Amino acid sequence: MPNLRFAAEKERRAALVTGGARGIGRACALRIAEEGRDVVIADVLDEDGQKGVQAIEALGQRGLYVHTDVTDEAAVQKAVAQTIAAFGRLDILVCCAGILGQEVPFLEQTADMFDRVMKINVYGVFYAHQAAIPHMLERGWGRCVSITSGARLGATHVVPYGTSKGAVWSLVAALGNAYPQQGVFVNGVEPGRALTEMVVPRFTKEFLDHPPVAIGRYSDAEEVAEVVEFLASERNTYTTGSVWSVKGATG
Question: Is 241 contained in some domain?
């Protein structure tokens, strides 16, 4: 580790990754495991989640899959409790669980459609932070990272999604200022479009090969995970309440 005088000693910490079975969540779970962390994957995709655990164990770390519906507060609390029961601690929370919802014009969106997106994308993040942060405060160290989106600035055909990601941004800003002197930092990452199951099926190959991004391509999930891992690590000694852009462009 660099000579960072305020960095905590690197330990065998434990992480909980919601939505860790696929996409950015899976990439984050594996990247965090590469740094010597034990990782719990909390998801509803049981087969993919178990495969993720096998990949974590192949890296020489301990892994655990917990079937978790993030819209269920009790289920999220149980996932946190199972993390602590398995590994004796919870140091890192990464919230990747999220859905895009249906891409239709605003007037075709229903209250039920809006509600479903908000429950997964916002309530799931809220529940996870409420359940995890007390354990971090008890130990005097913790790192939380949530995935937001540029859709928070306005996306006509995914209004519920954009609204939910704006709420996540606000939550990060609020909690980032709440606990840093007690050793708990809360941050976010705005990834733009990464080549995951949420993005690839929606576009033609030609568009994906030549997207309108300054850098000239969309990211791999692993590139987003690299930033998440830093924010979740001991090397992050002075970043809290921020949302880092990993979009291949400014703005």
Answer: yes
